[in-house]
Structures are given as C-alpha cells and as structure tokens.
Amino acid sequence: MVALPSTVATNAKPGPVNFRPIADGDVGALFDVRTRTRENSYTLAELHRLGITPESVRARLATTFAGWLCADGDRVVAFAMADRSAGELWVIAVLSEYEGRGIGGELMRRAEEWLWTSGCERAWLTTDVDTSLRAYGFYRHRGWTDWKIDDGLRWMELRRPERRRREGDERIP
C-alpha cells in the first residue's frame, strides 16, 4: 500500500513548474496524482487490482517504459508514461488545479517524441468512450484519431508526424 502525503495543498495557487524524467524515488508521488485526477480517477485498491503497484511501476520503468513528471517545487502535479515496445501512451495524469496550463500538452509532447525517437511509427492509447470528457478533446486536439471501440474502451492512434495516415492507408493492428 502506498502512503499518501499527510498534507496536500489542494487550494494552493500553482507556481512555476518544472519537467523532468521520473526517478525511482518519485513513484509514490505518482500514485497520489493518479488517485486525485478529476476524470478517470482510480483508488489505490482499484490500481492494485489492476496490478498497478509501486513495484510494478518501478519494474516497467526499468524495461521498455519511460516517464516524465511535472513538479511545482517538490510536489509532483502531473506525469505521463509510455512503452516503446508497444508504442503505447500508458498513462497521463494531471491534478485538476493544474489543468489548462499546458502541462498535459508538454508531457504528451515528451512521450510522443520519445516514442518516435525509439523507432515507433505509430502510437496508441485507450481512453473512456465518453467523448464529452476533457481527455477526448485533448487527444483529438493533438492529432490523435479514433481507431476502434473495444471492451468498453476507446482506442486512439497517432502516426509519426512525417508518416501520418493518409486516406486509404491500411491500419497497423
């Protein structure tokens, strides 16, 4: 079980932020962010049932995953992780009081660029099927397109910029 910070300043005015790769010592703070997002939030118990634990995140980061975070001072306020072996944007999470400041866009830019430089020609992600949620508009604004709906999830894809799909191109499974 991950211990959450005992004092969380939820009404503090956001200040200047910085971006950096996720380090091993940051993993606990990622769970604080992931359990407090405005949309698509999970409890620690739900994450654990999905096999997402601090140990599993550390193991992923030691293999084909990479991640970046945004910090306001020493407080982690957002993060993203991607998997180069699958071309998957695995997670992006931003605390609600930091939404609308370009933080999610910068984290997405870093994840997408890393996937492209790792040799991926196509990236994919899953999200809620509800198109009224902020995430859907955010992904669409960045150029992600609907791929399929399967098992209650919307699957979206993004082609490497110089090789984005043209009309009639076959989709990669």
Structure description:
It is built from 5 helices and 7 strands, in the order βαααβββαβαββ. The model is unreliable at 1-12 (pLDDT under 50). The relative contact order is 0.13. The protein is globular, with a radius of gyration of 16 Å. It has a domain at 18-120: 3-Layer(aba) Sandwich (Aminopeptidase), CATH 3.40.630.30. It has helices at 27-34, 44-49, 54-61, 103-117, 134-141, and strands spanning 18-21, 65-72, 75-83, 88-94, 122-127, 145-150, 153-159. By secondary structure, it is an alpha+beta fold.
Give me some keywords for this one.
173 residues; alpha+beta; Aminopeptidase; four-stranded antiparallel β-sheet; three-stranded antiparallel β-sheet; 5 helices; 26% helix; globular; disordered N terminus
Categorize the overall geometry: globular
Number of H- or I-type helical stretches: 5
Sheet having the most strands: 4 strands, antiparallel
- Just name the CATH architecture of the domain at 18-120: 3-Layer(aba) Sandwich
The named CATH superfamily of the domain at 18-120: Gcn5-related N-acetyltransferase (GNAT)
Q: Strand-and-helix sequence, N→C? A: EHHHEEEHEHEE
CA radius of gyration: 16 Å
- Count the E strands: 7
Spatial order of strands in the largest sheet: 1-2-3-4
Could you say which structural class the secondary elements and strand pairing correspond to? alpha+beta
Span from first to last CA? Answer: 36 Å
- In round numbers, the mean pLDDT is 86
CATH topology of the domain at 18-120: Aminopeptidase
Instruction: Tell me the name of the CATH class of the domain at 18-120.
Output: Alpha Beta
What is the percent of helical residues? Answer: 25-40%
What are the segments in which pLDDT stays under 50 over at least 5 consecutive residues?
Answer: 1-12
Beta fraction of the residues? 25-35%
